Amino acid sequence: MEVLFNADDFGLTKGVNDGIIEAFVNGVVGSATLMMNGPAVEHAVKAAKRHPGLKVGIHLVLTWGKALCPDLHSIVDREGIFRWRSDFRKRTVPDLKETEKEWRTQMEAFLSTGLPLHHIDSHHHIHGWEPLRELTLRLAEDYRVPVRFVESLRTSPDYLLTEALWTDFYGKGVTSNIFDQLRMIPADKVEVMTHPAFVDTELQAISSYAEPRNAEREILCSLKIPDWVRIL
């Protein structure tokens, strides 16, 4: 089995960035996805350039923080903050033209860093929301990169980064027996979603998921890789 450990939220805080780099240098993390509206994006880009072996994708955002595109109306409030949150499925569908405009702005901001774009995923997996499915596939095609597996894209395997996504390495699911769990998945190529960090005050102030990131980092740096696994 091929396994890609991806670290989400690259660029959120310096502690998150440092934790991701630590889990890459001394652990199993092979890629990270950069959220272009994060407060520590410049710090993340510099760190990634010091470690060119780390594959970096984009963590498209529509449910946290401020938009990058200044010319938006319906998908942001008066301060430019996105109107959607993690419970987006209970809310109205965003304007697709404005969403595409913002996401392309984020994509172009990523490319302007000079980092090679590895793949696309999103904060809270919103790229897997059925109303945004065609937009996600269009971006993948236009930018010629694969997309994180989500159920709504299962029928478009040619666009997918892996055959499956493991999201249970999170919260109470952060345990060192992850390979035992992955072995039960009927897939040859799996992505594991992770959130390693050195928890800092900035993270505690802006994220409801903070302290478990320390445990994630420690476990990701101590895992023993079975002989049936190839880390990507």
Automatic annotation (TrEMBL):
<dbReference type="InterPro" id="IPR022948">
    <property type="entry name" value="COD_ChbG_bac"/>
</dbReference>
<dbReference type="Pfam" id="PF04794">
    <property type="entry name" value="YdjC"/>
</dbReference>
<keyword id="KW-0119">Carbohydrate metabolism</keyword>
<keyword id="KW-0479">Metal-binding</keyword>
<dbReference type="InterPro" id="IPR006879">
    <property type="entry name" value="YdjC-like"/>
</dbReference>
<dbReference type="GO" id="GO:0046872">
    <property type="term" value="F:metal ion binding"/>
</dbReference>
<protein>
    <recommendedName>
        <fullName>Carbohydrate deacetylase</fullName>
    </recommendedName>
</protein>
<dbReference type="GO" id="GO:0000272">
    <property type="term" value="P:polysaccharide catabolic process"/>
</dbReference>
<keyword id="KW-0378">Hydrolase</keyword>
<dbReference type="GO" id="GO:0019213">
    <property type="term" value="F:deacetylase activity"/>
</dbReference>
<dbReference type="GO" id="GO:0016811">
    <property type="term" value="F:hydrolase activity, acting on carbon-nitrogen (but not peptide) bonds, in linear amides"/>
</dbReference>
<dbReference type="InterPro" id="IPR011330">
    <property type="entry name" value="Glyco_hydro/deAcase_b/a-brl"/>
</dbReference>
<keyword id="KW-0460">Magnesium</keyword>
